Every structure is written in C-alpha cells, then in structure tokens.
Amino acid sequence: MEKRQELYAGKAKSVFATDDPDLLVLHFRDDTSAFDGERMESLERKGMVNNRFNAFIMGKLQAAGIPVHLERLLSDTECLVKKLDMIPVECVVRNVAAGSLVKRLGVEEGQELTPPTFELFLKNDKLHDPMVNESLAITFGWATAEQLAEMKALTFRVNDVLKQLFADGGLLLVDYKLEFGVFNGQIVLGDEFSPDGCRLWDAETREKLDKDRFRQGLGGVIEAYEEVGRRIGVDFS
C-alpha cells in the first residue's frame, strides 16, 4: 500500500489517497478546534491518542456486527480506511442533557434522557451545522429515506455497545455524533469516534473527560482522553 497525495485537510485530520482506489490513509494531527474553527490549538500527543482510541472503538463496533470503514492501524497517527461516499448528515444520540440541547430547550444539564434522543445535523461549518430533519435530508438529496433509516438503526446499535463499554469503565456516555458513508452500496460508519466527538463524564463525580475541557478552558484535555482510554482498555504504548 502506497500513500499518495493529500486529498483533504480538515480541522484535526488529513486524508490521503493510496495506490488502491478503494482505500485512504487517515492522518490524525495534534490540532484541536472549537466553535467551528474559531479557536485552534495544537495539543501534544492528541493525534496519537485519538488515532488509537478510534481504532479501539471501531474494533469493538465491528466485533458487534456494525460495518466500519477502519481497515487497520498504520502508525501512531495514521490508519487505513475504506473510501466512502460520505453522507453530509451527522447523527446525534443524547443519553444525558448537555451542550446545545440545554441551550436550545432550557433543560437542566445532567438530566437523564429516557429514551435517548436522536437528531440530525447538516455537516456545514459555514452554517454552524444546523439541525435538520429527515424530510429536508430527502428533499435536498443529502440521503434517501432508506439510508436515513439504516443510519438511525446503526446509531442506536452503537449506543447499546458503547454505553455498556464506558459504564464498565465508570463512565457516562452523555452524547455523541456519528458520520456515515456508502461503500459498495452499504451504509458504513466513517470518520472517527473519540472524545473529540462525544461527551464522557465520570459516572460518580460527573467530571468532564472530553472535548468540553478544551471548549470550556478546563485544561488537562489529553490527560482526560488518556484516562478514558485506560479505563476501557485502550493501549497507548
């Protein structure tokens, strides 16, 4: 497998072509952003931590029968992934009230949500990832009704697997976002799953151990990511 030209550079990851048209190299950088890129910093070890964290989670999900784009780790900061035709709609599940839900609805942070909520957001930084619904997604051609149904079903299957995984480590999976794409006609989980794209709290103290530490200036961001990883069995060595 030969790594070739850079195809895309996002806020925290870069994507490279390979000599196989069906495979890409995903490079996790140390860059960290918040508020749609308005705040940017480089945090030492972040690329390594998120790459290994993501590989661990993707492995757990794949073992549970969920199709994922990850093929294998290549290095501390790179992995090989399937080339997906990405669907520009993010799926968000919330188990506990936090973040934008609290601001939008005026509910109390920390309120348990039973059953968990499911929301769709258009992936568009310029528009600040607006909330959308299935009707809009279908009308504007972002996804078909069948694709949306499969994405929703897979998102809740992920919730079943990961809520228990994190609970076993004394953690609450507060909420998370997932991105999906199409590979050979199948809906496949893409992008990443790391503390950058979810909220994780200590189950007893409710200490925040995710990207909110960066957003809210709490410090110890990477140390918190590593603590989460150690509790669930991620190998950072």
Automatic annotation (TrEMBL):
What keywords are annotated for this sequence in UniProt?
ATP-binding, Ligase, Nucleotide-binding, Purine biosynthesis
- Look up the EC number in the record and give it: 6.3.2.6
Q: In which pathway does it act?
A: Purine metabolism; IMP biosynthesis via de novo pathway; 5-amino-1-(5-phospho-D-ribosyl)imidazole-4-carboxamide from 5-amino-1-(5-phospho-D-ribosyl)imidazole-4-carboxylate: step 1/2
Q: Provide the Gene Ontology terms for cellular component.
A: cytosol
Q: Which domain of life is it from?
A: Bacteria
Any one GO BP annotation for this protein: cobalamin biosynthetic process
Instruction: Provide the reaction this enzyme catalyses.
Output: 5-amino-1-(5-phospho-D-ribosyl)imidazole-4-carboxylate + L-aspartate + ATP = (2S)-2-[5-amino-1-(5-phospho-beta-D-ribosyl)imidazole-4-carboxamido]succinate + ADP + phosphate + 2 H(+)
User: PROSITE patterns given for it?
Assistant: SAICAR_SYNTHETASE_1, SAICAR_SYNTHETASE_2
Uppermost EC category: ligase
Q: Which residues does the UniProt record annotate as the domain SAICAR synthetase/ADE2 N-terminal?
A: 7-231
Q: Name one GO molecular function term.
A: phosphoribosylaminoimidazolesuccinocarboxamide synthase activity
Q: Which Gene3D superfamilies match?
A: ATP-grasp fold, B domain (3.30.470.20), Phosphorylase Kinase, domain 1 (3.30.200.20)
Is-annotated flag, keyword Metal-binding?
Answer: no
One protein family per Pfam: SAICAR_synt
**Which family does the UniProt entry place this protein in?**
Belongs to the SAICAR synthetase family.
The record ties this protein, via NCBIfam families, to:
purC
User: Which HAMAP family would you find in this protein's record?
Assistant: SAICAR_synth (MF_00137)
Protein name per UniProt:
Phosphoribosylaminoimidazole-succinocarboxamide synthase
The organism of origin for this protein: Halomonas cupida
Q: Which gene encodes it?
A: purC
